[in-house]
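Module 6 notes. Inverse folding takes a fixed backbone as the condition and produces residue identities as the prediction. Think of it as a translation problem where the source language is geometry and the target language is the twenty amino acids. Below is one complete input and output pair. Work through it position by position during the lab.
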């Protein structure tokens, strides 16, 4: 039996992001991959594992071919926004077991540019087959599903629309410190509330931006860390969970599958939520941030509203800086954003974030981070706990 090896993230990168009108999704994959390998200082010949989803008929075969890779371990798991945390968990297990030495996770999308050019329209439905056929005719759009869940939390626990708006305000405050964020101008709670209604109770600023962009993350076995130009960030624990496809099968709109993946990831990492220095949480909508904070154990169930309204999510002065790059609400959101969470978490732990760098009470850089992705309409969750080298 092969001894289980430690696994580290040694390379992370973003492609050009935001408004990218002159690139294909394949080009963004390649740009992010090249930058991640350069970040690590490793040759692509070392890469024998590859994970990709969302592009091509035979993903990840087509993307690997485009990148000139011939991997002997692949993953094309596709569970929405949590795909990349789930893939990172799979990759870490494969490396630890000796099935791969270096796994590259890559994503790229021109979601914004495609809409502008008329190559696609905004997605109103994921389809009408299977269990969703019973809900789609009644107008269950993706946004409506999240809005219903948010309204249930408001009814159950007294969460207010102002508290949800605070999530957007604090995400924008963090984005103001990130020169690569799409939207950096500060916003107020009143501005969030006065915007056009998208799906009650969400106004426009409760919803993520639509952008182009790509990201890549390189994980390696511990014996290759010494060959890298960067400090390693260790994968301490990870987990995944799924909940439902049809809203009628969701037992409780106020509990996401992060309640399962978070608990397992923290247990496997041997750390408690209270020890985490920085959290990167999927935020297609403000409610996602609030309920995920509860489900990861940063506050009690129903206490998310009170938790977020005190400025705790801010890089500057926050007790638990969340979505330090501005998140999907302000920085970028090119579709399945989970890989961007891992990139930002790693950069924070390496102390590379400039003005938005999180500092502990003693001025040192963060030691522990969590990235938690959500897929579908809280259908799936992947959580990864990372530690600085």
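Target side of the pair, the amino acids:
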């Amino acid at each position: 039996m092969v001894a289980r090896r430690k696994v580290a993230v040694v390379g992370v990168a973003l492609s050009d992001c935001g408004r990218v009108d002159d690139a294909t999704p394949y080009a963004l994959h390649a740009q992010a991959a090249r930058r991640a390998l350069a970040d690590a200082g490793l040759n692509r010949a070392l890469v024998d594992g590859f994970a990709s989803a969302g592009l091509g008929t035979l993903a990840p075969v087509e993307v690997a071919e485009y990148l000139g890779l011939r991997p002997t371990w692949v993953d094309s798991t596709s569970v929405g926004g949590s795909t990349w945390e789930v893939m990172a968990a799979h990759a870490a297990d494969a490396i630890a077991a000796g099935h791969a030495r270096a796994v590259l996770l890559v994503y790229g999308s021109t979601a914004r540019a495609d809409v502008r050019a008329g190559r696609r329209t905004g997605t109103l439905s994921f389809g009408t087959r299977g269990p969703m056929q019973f809900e789609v005719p009644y107008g269950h759009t993706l946004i409506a599903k999240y809005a219903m869940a948010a309204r249930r939390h408001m009814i159950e626990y007294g969460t207010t629309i102002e508290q949800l708006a605070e999530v957007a305000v604090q995400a924008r405050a963090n984005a103001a410190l990130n020169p690569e964020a799409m939207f950096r101008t500060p916003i107020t709670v009143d501005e969030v509330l006065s915007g056009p209604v998208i799906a009650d109770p969400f106004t426009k600023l409760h919803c993520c931006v639509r952008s182009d962009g790509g990201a890549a993350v390189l994980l390696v076995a511990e014996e290759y860390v010494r060959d890298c130009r960067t400090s390693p960030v260790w994968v301490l624990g990870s987990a995944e969970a799924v909940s439902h496809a049809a809203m009628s099968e969701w037992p409780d709109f106020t509990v996401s599958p992060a309640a399962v993946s978070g608990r397992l990831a923290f247990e496997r990492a041997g750390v408690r939520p209270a020890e985490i220095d920085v959290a990167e949480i999927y935020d297609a909508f403000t409610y996602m941030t609030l309920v995920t904070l509860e489900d990861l154990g940063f506050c009690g169930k129903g206490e998310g509203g009170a938790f977020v309204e005190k400025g705790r999510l801010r890089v500057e002065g926050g007790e638990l800086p969340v979505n330090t790059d501005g998140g999907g609400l302000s920085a970028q959101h090119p579709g399945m954003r989970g890989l961007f969470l891992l990139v930002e978490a790693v950069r924070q732990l390496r102390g590379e974030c400039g003005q938005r760098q999180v500092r502990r009470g003693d001025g040192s850089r963060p030691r522990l981070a969590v990235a938690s992705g959500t897929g579908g309409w809280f259908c799936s969750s992947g959580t990864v706990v990372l530690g600085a080298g």
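Reference fact for the lab report: The chain has a mean pLDDT of 95.
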